[in-house]
Specification:
By secondary structure, this protein is of the alpha/beta class. Helices cover about 40% and strands about 15% of the residues. The chain binds zinc ion.
Length: about 475
């Protein structure tokens, strides 16, 4: 009897679960049935499959979020985008950003209190959408970033896909801290369990902890990217342990040279090459740091500053940490860094060290989205060809992230992350700025929409300026 009773209960539960599943189904179906079909006609495709640089006068069909065909049949219902005289390339991947999240509480903290400063994720993503940056690698991720990613996945926000790296630091550093090998291993295991996909190593780790983190991360199939901790000063080669996947800034190496010699650049490039470690130079950041150490004039005149959140604008202009260090020795130091970073990247290219494009956007002066085009220009200035620079921001970057099967090239079956350009970036890298429209995960934003979104954002930022004073905000007043 008992058995029958439990069977009935089970059947009852099963019916509830099943009917709930069924009840949700029409919704799920509805979301996938609606088809958005576009065709870009007569366009020159830069696929970034390097064997086939430009496919001329092609037609590309996009159904929902995917590239359905290239030079295939065109569905009757397709909305037509005229690509005549234009170029189509994959969306850009920024390999080093810090995505802002709701923050605080600044001032008194109370149980049950949420954040006190809120960011509009759509406003933030508008900066990337407008610049064709369709994938971000966040290098200091927190639980809030998973929430942001879900908002995008649900279609509540149109924005970039995001790869998330958990940051581990030593000493009294921020966030996850580890000061022994075992703490380092545990921090990696926790990050893995929490869902992070990559590990970011930071400057205050000690040598044994750094090595343990890289080793443990590899055991859990997590790639490591990082700063090179100061503890390696004087024995840099020790940092190049197996599975140390990428150095996050060129200056992480530059700070290990005393005289900025060609021999040192060659030595560092050899260390990267021998260990299979990639380099993300982040030229834009060091250029901006050098500029702000000199003065704030360039920052004040920066046209894209108007698009940054007013709180960031206030912080950059009134509490600029780099401008505070302004003395002649520091000015010279950063000028040397800029020069040596260029030398280093030249040597890396010569040895075949893979290079990817990243901006470190959120550093003062480095405006999200816009900075990506500066980075491309600086990569070319350092000796990469236009095609190599584009590759560093598309296919190559996707490969390091392990998402090359879905983004990074223009190919049938890939996600519709695309930039339509008025001019050919293979001829002049600055042509990546001549944007006629962007597809972000299948959402089409034409030039007039991009212009209107940016104008609206600038207007709202300017109107809100008086409400966002950095010093008042962090004091909780
Ligand atoms: Zn960074």
């Amino acid at each position: 009897m008992k058995k029958i009773f439990y069977s009935i209960i089970n059947l009852f539960l099963f019916t509830i679960i099943y009917s709930n599943l069924f009840a949700q189904k029409p919704n799920l179906l509805k979301r996938t049935i609606i088809q958005e079909v576009y065709v870009i006609k007569n366009v020159n495709i830069i696929s970034m499959n390097l064997s086939n640089s430009v496919l001329q006068n092609a037609s590309l069909v996009i159904i929902n979020d995917r590239i359905a065909s290239i030079n295939g049949p065109i569905p009757n219902e397709a909305k037509i985008i005229d690509g005549t005289g234009k170029w189509l390339m994959p969306g850009l991947i920024d390999m080093h950003v810090h995505v802002p999240t709701d923050a605080g509480p600044f001032g008194p903290k109370l149980p049950t209190q949420g954040a006190t400063v809120f960011f509009d994720l759509q406003d933030f993503m508008t900066l990337h959408n407008s610049n064709g940056v369709t994938t971000l690698f966040d290098l200091g991720s927190r639980p809030e970033h998973f929430g942001q990613r879900n908002e995008i996945a649900k279609g509540q926000v149109i924005g970039s896909r995001m790869a998330l790296a958990a940051m581990i630091d030593g000493g009294k550093g921020q966030g996850r801290r580890a000061n022994t090998a075992e703490e380092g291993r545990q921090a990696v295991r926790s990050a893995k369990a929490e869902g992070y996909e990559f590990i970011k190593l930071y400057s205050d780790l000690n040598i044994e902890t750094f090595k343990a983190i890289v080793d443990e991360a590899a055991k859990h199939s997590l790639k490591s990217i990082g700063h090179i901790p100061d503890a390696f000063q004087g024995h840099l080669q020790e940092a190049f342990v197996p599975n140390f996947g990428m150095v996050a800034h060129a200056e992480e190496l530059t700070k290990h040279t005393e005289n900025y010699t060609l021999e040192d650049a060659q030595r560092f490039a050899k260390l990267l090459k021998a260990n299979g470690t990639w380099l993300c130079p982040t030229f834009t950041t060091i250029e901006w740091i050098a500029s702000q150490v000199r003065s704030l004039d360039q920052l004040k005149a920066l046209p894209s500053l108007q698009y940054m959140h007013p709180l960031s604008q206030s912080k950059w202009l009134t509490a600029n940490r780099y401008n505070k260090m302004s003395d002649s020795a520091t000015i010279v130091k950063f000028e040397n860094y800029v020069k040596f970073n260029n030398l280093l990247v030249k040597e890396c290219k010569a040895l075949g060290v893979p290079i990817v494009a990243g901006t470190d956007a959120s550093t003062s002066g480095v405006v999200f989205g816009f900075a990506m085009h500066d980075e491309l220009e600086l990569l070319v200035k350092a000796g990469l060809s236009n095609e190599e620079a584009l590759n560093a921001a598309t296919k190559q970057a996707a490969t390091w992230l392990g998402i090359e099967s879905i983004v990074g090239t223009v190919e049938t079956g890939k996600k519709a992350d695309l930039i339509l350009l008025e001019a050919n970036p293979l001829e002049n890298i600055n042509n990546t700025k001549k944007i006629a429209g962007v597809f972000v995960n299948g959402h089409w934003l034409d030039k007039s929409k991009i212009k209107a979104d940016l104008a609206d954002l600038s207007k709202r930022n300017t109107a809100a300026k008086a409400d966002w004073d950095w010093k008042k905000t962090i004091s909780g007043k």
